[in-house]
What does this fold into?
Amino acid sequence: MNIVSALYKFSFIESPHILQSKIRRKLKSLSILGTILVGKEGLNGTISGKKENVDKAIKYIKNIDGFCDIDVKFSKSLVNPFIRLKIKLKDEIVTIGDKSINPNKEVGKYVNPEEWNDLISNKNTILIDARNNYEHSIGTFKNSLNPNTIKFREFPEWVRKQKFSDNEKQNRKFAMFCTGGIRCEKASSFMLKEGFKDVSHLKGGILNYFDSVPKNESKWKGECFVFDDRVSVKHDLTEGSYDMCHGCRMPITNEDKATDEYIKGVTCPSCFFEKTEEQKARYMSRQKQVDLAKERNQKHIGPKDKKLKK
It folds into this structure.
């Protein structure tokens, strides 16, 4: 059994490149896999490994100046959902495209999972899903607004297009949620900057809600997309029922796999007509290598496909 840990914190880092090297060296020594983004504004990532090694990795990160109270959430996976360790330098640890937005200075109100149901049941609350459209499509809270974004950096433009009135900005409650909480930190900071008065977000995100609220009391419908090879998790934080199209990285169901547009490792109904014949041939060659590796009981690393943007 592998332990998966999602973590983040906005806290100023003086020399990100130095910290990047230190984190890579330490986590590599613990056989940790996954991705951590390092930037001047903080840390963001998901890692996995054996429990004792993940515990040591988290302890190490918490000993970094400014990160003693880093937000950490745990789940489990029968197989390791990552194939390599990547410690990346980034200008933004979650990209909204506006560097003037600083959650270290201004952020919305945190709402604990135990209080969340009451907030989103309030008729004066406007509930916003701060995630992307493909995430919203497989699970969300009832009556949440879907910004239909492909990338998080599209969120500010969506908010401005809604043309919320000054009266709404001052008198309505705005509640937001995302997978682990980090996008809502930036989204709430942006909305406060735009003049919204009462802005809240789910502390620790959907994963914390799953861990804290009994399923029979939950207002969540569906599964939650996660950015690793599990694709999604259920309310009990076990691996979900979705697979991923390796042509476009979109979540797919068994129904999608039954269509003529689904070619294993190549295309799905979402991308079949968008991929060129050259791309399809290349993906088919890659899938053949994956299948051959499985026959030899090996794990095929494959090319460094770009993951979906958070």
The first helix runs from residue 16 to 29.
